[in-house]
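Consider the tokenized backbone below.
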């Protein structure tokens, strides 16, 4: 029996030794290529080519079972050059016609103005462990739909990439600005048949961690780039960044003035002489969801176009850019000072920026009401890591309301003895709610260490005071106050007995946005203490009469 155990142990060690390192990944991109071409006639082509080998059922059945391609058929043509699966034994399974399914993009749902957008869902067939998905497609844009070649291309994927190729093709006489952020690699340059080509090739690109919110969605991509974790190519053929903004500024139109004036009159009725009250009224209209719907279609998806403000009022929904335009238009029509602030990724040189580097648009107002969300997304709170300007290209400094704001809240909790959790006769447990602002940070501290930088969406300074009123004849047991303080911030729990029960003060301050592998332990210590449910729990007992 002992000999058998030894053999099993040896076999296990051998298996560990020979298993490829790739087993830790769901899949691997053998090749991933993205090519952006500006043709002499002004039309453009984006071509994507990938070879992706699957290692797990999760990759096969969920993560990579489909490819989603959004385009605008009014101005763009989707061309599928190659689509098949090469199985482990070399058998090639061509993607059948019924596996190309065209649907309305989810972002355009409930937004009739953007229902012309299409999303091609390529359902990959013939999948098995060890199979390789091969897909090669292009989106060709008509001349004039996109004013210039304008690219912002993140590099990392959820799985490692053996070879990543990024290529720019422009007419030989056309100047192009470009930069690779968060990585160092120089392009090879070639010229042929009147076209100039710039090609970068990156080898053995590590995956972006899926576990961290900093890699999910648009907000996640921004955080990943700003933290230095995500390499990204930016390139454009605009002569200057302010020229790019000039073309965008032309889209910010009020539209029908009578519609705008009627809405302002409706919102400001009886408060015309009070600028702060006017601003509050406009902010409520902009932020209350039942009044205006939010459409998730991006500026890029619609060729950097937006509907006028009056049309957003009429339709009662808008894209993020359209809502910003409406907010600023209403404020200006009401006699307030307001402008559009453009938040972009920050390259080393301003001329390397294009419209594709825009992260968020924000309605910058001289009067900002308390406890009212901005029309712009929370990405604006990454301001220290972004370049911010007006639509004229002039640098702006965001108002302080975009940074971490101290949140103080006092409430009263009246404990009902009948609903009290009672683990034993004469004893009870009271659990205080964990505030939402703190919970938003939990996903950023899911592990004890991080392999790469994480950028929090914002810093935090949150204090909650809860007056716990216990049923007659019950008393809270004594608690010891706690305080943890380090370079990242501070956590405080204070318990003060009162005549009615207990006053509990909980405070969380996180003052550092950028978390690196070396200093992350400080953030983890703060949030680990805050997440300890014992700190949010009171033990109560009946007192002898």
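A designed sequence for it:
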């Amino acid at each position: 029996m002992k000999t058998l155990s030894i053999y099993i142990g040896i076999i296990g060690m051998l298996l560990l030794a020979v298993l490829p390192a790739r087993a830790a990944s769901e899949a691997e991109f053998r090749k991933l290529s993205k090519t952006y071409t500006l043709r002499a006639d002004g039309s453009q082509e984006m071509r994507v080519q990938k070879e992706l080998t699957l290692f797990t059922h999760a990759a096969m059945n969920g993560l990579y079972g489909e490819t989603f391609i959004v385009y605008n058929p009014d101005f763009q043509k989707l061309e599928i050059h190659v689509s098949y699966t090469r199985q482990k034994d070399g058998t090639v399974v061509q993607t059948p016609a019924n596996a190309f399914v065209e649907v309305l993009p989810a972002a355009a749902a409930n937004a009739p103005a953007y229902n012309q957008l299409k999303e091609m869902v390529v359902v990959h067939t013939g999948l098995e462990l060890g199979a390789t998905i091969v897909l090669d497609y292009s989106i060709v844009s008509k001349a004039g739909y996109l004013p210039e070649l304008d690219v912002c291309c993140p590099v990392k994927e959820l799985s490692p990439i053996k070879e990543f190729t990024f290529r720019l093709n422009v007419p030989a006489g056309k100047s192009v600005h470009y930069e690779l952020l968060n990585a160092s690699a120089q392009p090879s340059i070639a010229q042929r048949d009147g076209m100039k080509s710039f090609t970068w090739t990156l080898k053995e690109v590590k995956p972006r961690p899926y576990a961290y919110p900093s890699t999910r969605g648009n907000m996640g991509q921004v955080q990943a780039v700003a933290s230095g974790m995500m390499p990204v190519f930016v390139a454009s053929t605009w002569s200057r960044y302010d020229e790019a903004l000039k073309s965008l500024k032309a889209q910010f139109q009020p539209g029908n003035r009578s519609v705008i004036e009627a809405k302002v009159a409706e919102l400001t009725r009886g408060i015309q002489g009070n600028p702060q009250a006017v601003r509050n009224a406009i902010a409520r209209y902009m932020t209350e969801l039942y009044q205006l719907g939010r459409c998730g279609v991006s500026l890029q998806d619609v060729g950097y176009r937006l509907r006028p403000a009056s049309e957003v009022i009429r339709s009662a929904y808008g894209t993020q850019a359209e809502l910003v335009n409406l907010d600023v238009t209403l404020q200006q029509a009401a006699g307030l000072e307001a402008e559009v602030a453009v938040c972009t990724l920050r390259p080393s040189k301003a001329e390397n920026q294009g419209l594709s580097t825009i992260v968020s648009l924000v309605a910058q107002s001289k009067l900002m009401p308390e406890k009212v969300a901005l029309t712009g997304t929370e990405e604006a709170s990454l301001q220290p890591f972004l370049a911010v300007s007006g639509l004229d290209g002039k640098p702006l400094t965001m108002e302080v309301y975009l940074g971490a704001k101290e949140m103080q809240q006092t409430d009263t909790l009246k404990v009902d003895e009948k609903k009290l959790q009672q683990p034993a006769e004469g004893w009870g447990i009271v659990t205080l709610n964990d505030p939402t602002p703190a919970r938003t940070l939990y996903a950023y501290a899911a592990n004890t260490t991080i392999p790469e930088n994480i950028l929090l969406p914002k810093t935090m300074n949150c204090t909650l005071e809860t007056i716990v009123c216990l049923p007659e004849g019950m008393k809270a047991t004594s608690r010891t106050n706690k305080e943890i303080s380090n370079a990242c911030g501070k956590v405080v729990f204070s318990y003060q007995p009162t005549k009615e029960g207990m006053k509990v003060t909980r405070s969380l301050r996180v003052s550092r946005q950028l978390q690196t592998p070396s200093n992350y332990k400080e953030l983890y210590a703060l949030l680990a203490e805050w997440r300890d449910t014992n700190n949010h729990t009171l033990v109560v007992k009946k007192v002898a009469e």
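The longest strand covers residues 27-38.
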